[in-house]
Amino acid sequence: MSALVPLIVALPLLGAAITLVFGRSPRLQVFVTVVSLAAVAIIAAVLLVTIDGSAPIAVSVGGWPVPFGIVLYVDRFAALLVLISSIVLVAVLLFSIGQGAADGTDETPISIFNPSYLILAAGIFNAFIAGDLFNLYVGFEILLVASYVLITLGSTESRIRTGAVYIVVSLVSSIIFLAAIAMIYGALGTVNMAQIAERMSELPQDTQLVLHLMLLVAFGIKAAIFPVSFWLPDSYPTAPAPVTAVFAGLLTKVGVYALIRTETQLFADNDINTLLLIVALATMVVGVLGAVAQAELKRILSFTLVSHVGYMIFGLAIATPAAIGATVYYIVHHIVVQTTLFLAVGLIERRAGSTSILRVNGLLKVAPLLAVLYFVPAINLGGIPPFSGFIGKFALFEAAAQVGTPMMIVLIFGGILTSLLTLYALMRAWNLAFLREDEDPTETEADRRISYLDNAPAADEQQERRRIPRIMTVATGGMVTVTLALTIFAGPLYALCDRIGMSLLEPVNLVQLEEEVAP
User: Fold this and answer.
1) Verdict on whether the full-model pTM lies above 0.90
2) Could you write out the DSSP letters of every residue in 367-389?
């Protein structure tokens, strides 16, 4: 099975090379991209089943021993996220194929989009299976380089402007991360995460705290936690619909994944959980208040994305096996549901010519299926029972209640408030876009109730209404089905996440790791 691990990264990179060579053969490019990502999904599923019944797999690339070689480390957590990510990447790719077939290649030029998309996937996968901090840094840089290209596709003024902000913020995060890696190597003589975990206790607590906070800031920027989340709501909405969907679903979760690895394995004896609880509460509340104040669907979803990262930080700060398991389940839920909502909004934009809830109306009569495709993931994200959003939040609240400190009670109420306001923002958008009839010349009571949104950032100018290709509807419908599957199969999935939570809080067996990766 160890031979399969490098293929998780190698296949997308090989696919990217092939698509670059055959840039003038769109069909071949699409075929290679789909096959590469589907193959990774199959490999991840096989590895997940194998590892869940035995032990994690560590592979030293080139046969170099620890700490000299690049170690790829796949446990239940990494395998699960690679599997979910590859499924999401395939669905968004199908959506983009439909968009390209209908609109041409101005929005998502195939010769550029497919290789960049595969490089992005390789960076995400590499970050998930990295066994040392420097390889994790490399994974971040691979996905960021690709994301720079994808976020500016079309070269419009707004995309170039927000892309520049995105690039600057990402570079600052990368510099902080690289500086932290250099300091850790200077202090401990290794960047291998298993060895760092074993040797970290040798350092003074003050030194540990400095290294800890540097990694927290670096990963916090990538995860978009408050107060370093300012860049996200302006950056994501301007990109093409498929790019926005995959960014919203996956990129912040790579940062959250790195935070979980850091907190549970590297700094177990250097407790900053109180700080994390404060950050989690601020991220939830500030993010959802931003969502309520928006009149544009992509910006609403971008702010809810920030607020729901707060739930993940909340679970991480509780720091019990039950809480970590609930956090892993919530990550899986949020990857799928947030991506689905952005795809649904992409369909709304095509059908109505806008994503402004002040302009769009009457869609329920003309597009009832689209109403369902938006409604189901919206109430799921809002935490309505019995959907996966409710299951994940309830599990987090239960884990916090078991700890029972006053701060935990405050976070529980903050989480409930965030959930209610999320539901309000998403359902207000649904009511206005789908239930409201065509505009009447006279001002109505509904118009007066939403007049406070007149000063909210506006959507792009009204565009021409375009037909929705069937493959785009099928891709979005498939993702809605996956969101429902998270509820239907919540029992076995949550049991798996519970096992992940328990294993993440166990120290890595360094001796066993060295034996596994020995040439």
Assistant:
1) yes
2) -HHHHHHHHHHHHHHTT-TTSHH
